[in-house]
Amino acid sequence: MKQETGKISVPQTRKRLSICLKAGGHSFSPELLPRTAFEEDNEVVFTVITHKCTLVPTEAFEPSLAEKYLAVAGLACSSHEKAVWETQNGITAVIAIDRQCAEYIETTFGGRASYDTPLLTDYATDERLLHICTENGTAYLKFYDGGRMLMAEAVPASSEEEVLYYTAKAAERLGKQHFAISVSGPQAKMTAKLLRKHFNDVQCE
Q1: Those residues with Cβ within 8 angstroms of residue 189's Cβ, 6 or more apart along the chain or in another chain
Q2: Cα-flanking dihedrals φ and ψ of residue 70, to 5°?
Q3: pTM, full prediction
């Protein structure tokens, strides 16, 4: 039976095709999908780019509460959105996506489709590291210390200056102890250049 919202189970033997959904799927157009997405042998992974995303420990996650997790985080779904989710390595990402976009994906691709978010990407390291990934107007910040993720958030940031603002706010929470910053994404070089004016240890991937 088709799920109303949430993760769609995908067989692991299929080829993996990744498709980026900008602006939480609100700009989604089926006509722009590659022909290979409709081939039955392919798994289609839709990476949803939006700041309306939060992480929940999988053992505490309840599908029926998906939209409430977003609301509690101050990221409530609008009337045109619904919550979907994806689980990796014991962490479940709950993501707000355009309702019509999600319904098209679920109806068209069924069990071949799944969702993803840069907030699930693991940059685990033993050093104190703040990783920043910028993607299409959203910045994903994750902080690691001793191999453990201690902070993860997605924020709207359409410029390098906005990324700097959120980085400075994160630094205030992290305290005075030294940490490195690693930046990735299409605007990584420009973002790293600006951050280096304010932070000592900034790397560009």
Answers
A1: 204
A2: -65, -45
A3: 0.87
